[in-house]
Amino acid sequence: MADPEPRLNLIESYPKDGEFHYLFRKKLTHSDLMLGLILVGKRSREHLLDLKISSASVKLYSPASANTSVSFQRHGRESIVQLSKIGWTEIATRNGFVVDDEIDCWCVYHDEDGQRRTSLLVQGIEKVAISEIVSPNLC
Q: Cα separation of 47 and 51, whole Å?
């Protein structure tokens, strides 16, 4: 199955020259929303641990927040990467994210001020309403 593509038409401002790398899809938990989003999966570790630092501030792009700065930290020997509560909770609130919503996340490499930068892009998965088709009584 191919990785999903970001719906860039929903985002007002993002690095137009960016190189997008899909990281993960995740169902949000209460902890994600209240304590900071934990970035899951091997791809997250591969892309973000290459920064070789234990914490950093990056821009995060989403449909409801053009480019909010958010910091992330690596925790422990397992190298868990987590977005800080400050910044992330604002993004989650502006986007209307709630527990059990699913999101996709991409790492975006781009040039800014003559330097190679790393940013993140997060979008909620479109919810598709499924209605039951009721047939006329065939009895």
A: 8
